[in-house]
Amino acid sequence: TTSFGIEEALEQLGIKEVNKGTSTGKNWFSEGEEFSSYSPVDGQVIAKVTTTSKEDYEKVMESATSAFKEWRMKPAPLRGEIVRQFGDELRRLKEPLGKLVSYEMGKSYQEGLGEVQEMIDICDFAVGLSRQLHGLTMHSERPGHRMYEQYHPLGVVGIISAFNFPVAVWAWNTALAWICGDVCVWKPSEKTPLCGIACQKIAAKIMADNNLPEGISCLINGDYKVGEMMTNDKRVPLISATGSIRMGKIVAQAVAGRLGKSLLELGGNNAIIVTPDADIKMTVIGAVFGAVGTAGQRCTSTRRLIIHESMYDKVKDAVVDAYKQLRIGNPLDENNHVGPVIDKDAVKNYQHALKKVVEEGGNIIVEGGVLEGEGFESGCYVKPAIAEAKNSFEIVQHETFAPVLYMMKYSGGVENALELQNGVVQGLSSAIMTNNLREAEHFLSQAGSDCGIANVNIGTSGAEIGGAFGGEKETGGGRESGSDAWKIYMRRQTNTINYTTELPLAQGIKFDL
Ligand code: UN1
């Protein structure tokens, strides 16, 4: 891996000392136990990181809550200026950070760079937004009264992110939360802690450059037990959590138990509907990238292809053919399309899915398998596989975070395809491949896709940051990143001002003294 410049990248990111096994260098983390970050690329330990203890968590919260008092008083456009500088620093460090993402998480270097690009894009978006935190004005029913609403900062925002987007999802949350006047405490996945430390370093540098407290951006490390300190903490009015449906249900209940707000971005079970009017070439690119990109570990990954019977054999042959071209290997080597899955547990889940689909009566049309030998020592490289399956299979109903694609047929009109597509508990992303206006509009209508994201002639993954990102049903209902997703990071206040010498009551109530 040295040949791919990992050492240099760690050096540029200022986290080489972490690599040598010392802790994060942050005096917050003095007490917890150490855990290791392994690269799925070569199986090496990249770093040892200290788990945040209860005592250290208290220090983090003190630093966050006191930073909030200062930060909320800065005008929003000034907060935007800080985010602009943060985005500039990300531009400067795009390559080393993209490389670290690739090495610690296992996605291709191109996708690692793409992830940092999403961070940069959301910063730009947030900078503009910092002058547009608009509320409405209303006409009061009382004479000489003015009524309007304003948005105020919320406080400490807790962010729990997943390994698959170890840096971008944090940035979607922080860039918006920061311009909104909030401070953030982030618990990255324990599988990608070094990405978290690298980002924290960048944020801390920008805060220091501007004489701002580092507590505006805080990091805590460890597994779900560390996350629980936050979900149960009344000082954290909003928890934004990305991960499995199982995790989301636990987080949602804990946060609801104290009537806090949660923003949940959970599992997907995303399908592409291929209609008789689909462009085959586009379908193949969308489906194959969607299914094997990030080794099938995006929440927007394509899990199901729902193909019209008249197109079935053609599409199946074209996709199977495309799978033959896939090169699996070190994701830092730009000749490869598919890198490893995150760890050996992910390999087990992948194997379980392939076994289960056969047991339930499915038919494997592209064989899977774990790769062995030179270059595959980590044991995390698997072959993207395809099975013909029924939507009703238990395994098809379940999100397996691996490159396993299920193919199924539909007959008749697009409404039959939609029944299959919507016939799962998840509701994140969906797509239709068609040049038929009627089918496309039906798919987008209220009787169409029930997902938060519905695309026409685009695959299920790779959403732009400008739109609101998230999904319905057990995906959790939260929306992050673009559009008006910022509103969840603020509290709305309705203000009515009386500039007369009378005090008329609303609803015309008479109350004479
Ligand atoms: C995720 O997998 O959690 O739409 C986020 C996409 C990316 C984000 C995925 N922009 O695939």
TrEMBL record:
Its EC number is 1.2.1.3. Residues 31-494 form the Aldehyde dehydrogenase domain. It is an enzyme of class 1 (oxidoreductase). This is aldehyde dehydrogenase (NAD(+)). The keyword NAD applies. GO terms for molecular function: aldehyde dehydrogenase (NAD+) activity. InterPro entries: Ald_DH/histidinol_DH, Ald_DH_C, Ald_DH_CS_GLU, Ald_DH_N, Aldehyde_DH_dom, ALDH7A1-like. The active site is at E265. It comes from the Bacteria. Keywords: NAD, Oxidoreductase. It comes from Aequorivita lipolytica. It holds the Pfam family Aldedh. Belongs to the aldehyde dehydrogenase family. Homotetramer. The lineage of its organism: Bacteria, Pseudomonadati, Bacteroidota, Flavobacteriia, Flavobacteriales.
